[in-house]
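Budget justification, computational time. The allocation requested in the original proposal was used primarily to generate structure tokens for proteins on the priority list. As evidence of use, we reproduce two of the resulting records. The first is shown immediately below.
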Amino acid sequence: MKKGNVAALLPIGVFLVLYLGLGILFEYGMGISMGFYNIPIVVIFLIALLVACFQNRKLPFDDKLAIMGRGIGDKTIVTMILIFMAAGVFVGTVGRDSAESVAYLMLSVIPAEFSVAVLFVVSCFVSISMGTSVGTITLITPIAVAVSAASGFSLPLCVGSVMGGAMFGDNLSFISDTTIAACQGQGCKMQDKFRENFKIALPAAIVTLVLILVLSLGSDISGTVQNDYNLLELIPYLIVLVGGILGINVFVVLLLGILSGSIIVVAEGAVAATDLLGNMGTGAAGMFETTMVAVLVSAICALIRENGGFVALLNGIKRVFKGRKGGQLGMGLLVGAMDIATANNTVAIVMANPIAHEMAETYDISRRKTASLLDTFSCVFQGVIPYGAQMLVAISACAELGFSVTAFQIMPFLFYPFFLLLSSLAFIFLVPDNRGYEPDHAAFEEEVLEVAEEA
């Protein structure tokens, strides 16, 4: 084993202590609503970066800047940032009205006793199309409240079904922050990661749906939920979804989605042509924090790697987790721990990416498997923690409509995240993975050329 430097991991420790400590203080000590999300995460990362800069005094500051520059300028980081921006423009262009239309269409044609199952299925589809679990929960939870009030189904069951479906799409969507971060961080094609994930997510979704149907058919319900709907605006989402599955370049897919969405919303009169660019800008601006997190984390990780922190962490992991299966479990627990500490699955993946990349090479784990594990386990933990944005947004949406429900009332009905965890463990320990780690030949060639030029 190469000798590592445990002290080089101090910036990560500083970030976790500050963010988790202040989050707990704000949320539970001071009673601030959405306490974790009132903390400027960019500022906390800047403090962590400052700590990293003060380490290794033998290295001149100019050299540290050069190291950070190489980390930020890595092809995967640049690609990740550009995809974040394009996805933000897409969401800003097409809006989110079509999500409600899908729900109301299905509720109008399917018998009332299947309405909770409809909520789950609609949430799955909407979150895959939109690429955001929080956005899906924001849109569909009010419908879940209406379904509960009209039919008599338990409100926690309805809300838990929406949250489960939202995490299904968050895990699989081609324009989800988590998918973008995991795939670009591991140098994996999105369609490869989708296929790997789908094999894990589909069994969990089917078992969840069956359980919801069993609970629903045993309930005495009545009433219906009716509302207007318009499905034309769904076309851009379908273009992105189908294009991603077919393996078309993600930038081409997003540009087609933006173009078709622009034509539809303007032709329908949903958005004035003069406002369209403004909406695009707003969508892109919504990705600012995620983009800055990617930039700062890549800079911090570059310094940590230079100072031997990742070698020390990897040596510790190898002592605990043995073999390829153990390495896969270690990856899952690593990103899960990051998610528990940050309450943000995208940030957790961005932080775990460089460590997981080293682990993939050490344990001979394929890139697609690594990306899938990072995304899946982060969604498992994010989907159940009581202080996550998904849970807090769902509770807030209910409260705004005059209905009180707590996180601990909803958690027993979060069937999908729990089944996703079981499915993930089954695929790690029971299903063989014959494809090992694939070297990044392009990156290796670039490194050889750089060494040759320096020589």
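The second record produced under the same allocation is shown here.
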Amino acid sequence: MFDSTAVNLEILKQRAYNLRWATVPQGVIPLTAADPDFPSAPEIAEAITRFVKDRYLCYGPPDGLPDFKESVATFFQDKRNIPAKPAYIFPVDSAAFGIFVICQAFLSPNDEAIIFDPVDFLFRYSVETVGGKAISFAIPAGTEKVDFEELEKLITPKTRLICLCNPLNPTGKVFTREELLQLGNIACKHNLIILSDEIWSDIIYNPHTYTSIASLDEAIRERTVTVTGYSKSYGLAGLRIGSVMASNQAHFDKLIKVSLHQSTVHGANVIGQIAATTALNECDYWLKAFVEHLHHMKQLCVTELNSMKGVSCIAPEGCYVAFANITGTGKTSKEIHELLLNEAKVAVVPGLKEWFGAGADGYIRLSFATSNEILTQALTQTKIVLNAL
């Protein structure tokens, strides 16, 4: 399912936008947006086909199709050890919008939210768009200990929210149970809401294991709102489907109100819910094989990056992105990005503040969710250019 023959470049060049094959110049290999180059599981396409053949494409319930809510709840119960209730779950048109909805629900103008650094720009964007102030907390890459005493020092009377991204994009860090307990206890102590972004939680590499912070204990769970999506695990980015899960009625009511679902101004499309339900119910075999393939691609990517002049890369514990330190080249992240694009014909994401925060300075991010053949070609071209510096 995941060899070079599975990747249809002609279709990708027509359909894969967001910095990928349809947007880069001809001949450039994009290791950019974290989206698989592989087609989704066949069961997903079959389920969509069955649904649309009747030609009734009606409105769905504002809080989600019952089958979708049940499937998501079962996933959290069975795979994440959370006593999830379908009634407290609703679909959103992406995990990105889910993050925004949570910020909208729990932040007022001038409230503060702690976000990690580096982390995906969507956290800062969401906090600031609703009028809040994003307070950065540095998270070291790899296994270096997280200083939660420093995190607690950032809390002020204006702090309302801690934004947890686990696994952490772009570094690939997977937080341990002990680390999550420390973070959860701080949130309880200071009466803070935890926004837990778990969109990457299926992509974990042995020997690491994943723990959902809402599974730790009831006190932590009661102040946690979990958001996830189905693009990273199942290749459904274009269907714009994610989910938000609260742990109590008060939080759910607040979230659904600001989502605008009940007014039909906003909402999650029904076909996306059909696809996600099928993925959760029928496609474990596909996901398992995908993660096994990604494990090999991770090893290839990290090994090759560490053999390049001026580059070092800590192996990610989760996610399918490599976060490579390029300070040894003597060039900036932007300069390396431009050099690789123009000379190596490889597109990467530069570690710029607007993408990941100040902590990404001196890094580039590469997605390895592609075939061995494509990744090997991209890394070979990258190595030739960097070793010539």
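A brief technical remark on that second record: Residues 177 and 211 are 6 Å apart (CA to CA).
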